[in-house]
Amino acid sequence: MLSRSILKQAVLLRSVKNAATNLKQIRNGGHGTWTYRAPPPLASKKETLLAEGLGGLCWWWILYHIATEPEHIYGEWPYIDPSTWTNEELGIPDDTAGPLKK
């Protein structure tokens, strides 16, 4: 009888401890540092250099391809000179037609 009550107390105490640890809020799933009303900690030198290097690589890729393959921006069709278009292509009636002819 005594051992049964001790066992119940031990189980109850263990469940209370587990409940206390489960109630703690872990921000961001435990990844990184979480701060409230304070500036976040600075990134390490390695992370800063890696971010700068990847950003530089991305900008090099973009600017290199703009300089060497401008068709991606301007299109791949040849430029047409608008002065070569006829009135018919533009939908403009002839000067001799219409109510203003003399």
TrEMBL record:
The Gene Ontology biological process annotation of the record reads: mitochondrial respiratory chain complex I assembly
Source organism's superkingdom? Answer: Eukaryota
**UniProt entry tagged with the keyword Nucleus:** no
Query: Where is it located?
Result: Mitochondrion inner membrane
TM spans, by residue? none
- InterPro entries associated with the record: NDUFB2_animal
> How does this protein sit in the membrane?
Peripheral membrane protein
Claim: Translocase is one of the keywords in the record:
no
What Gene Ontology cellular-component terms does the record carry? mitochondrial inner membrane; respiratory chain complex I
Broad class of where this protein is predominantly found? mitochondrion
Q: Which UniProt keywords apply?
A: Electron transport, Membrane, Mitochondrion, Mitochondrion inner membrane, Respiratory chain, Transit peptide, Transport
The similarity annotation says: Belongs to the complex I NDUFB2 subunit family.
> What's this chain's function?
Accessory subunit of the mitochondrial membrane respiratory chain NADH dehydrogenase (Complex I), that is believed not to be involved in catalysis. Complex I functions in the transfer of electrons from NADH to the respiratory chain. The immediate electron acceptor for the enzyme is believed to be ubiquinone.
Subunit (UniProt): Complex I is composed of 45 different subunits.
| Annotated protein name in UniProt | NADH dehydrogenase [ubiquinone] 1 beta subcomplex subunit 2, mitochondrial
Task: Identify the species of origin.
Answer: Pieris macdunnoughi
Top-down, what is the taxonomic lineage of the species of origin?
Eukaryota, Metazoa, Ecdysozoa, Arthropoda, Hexapoda
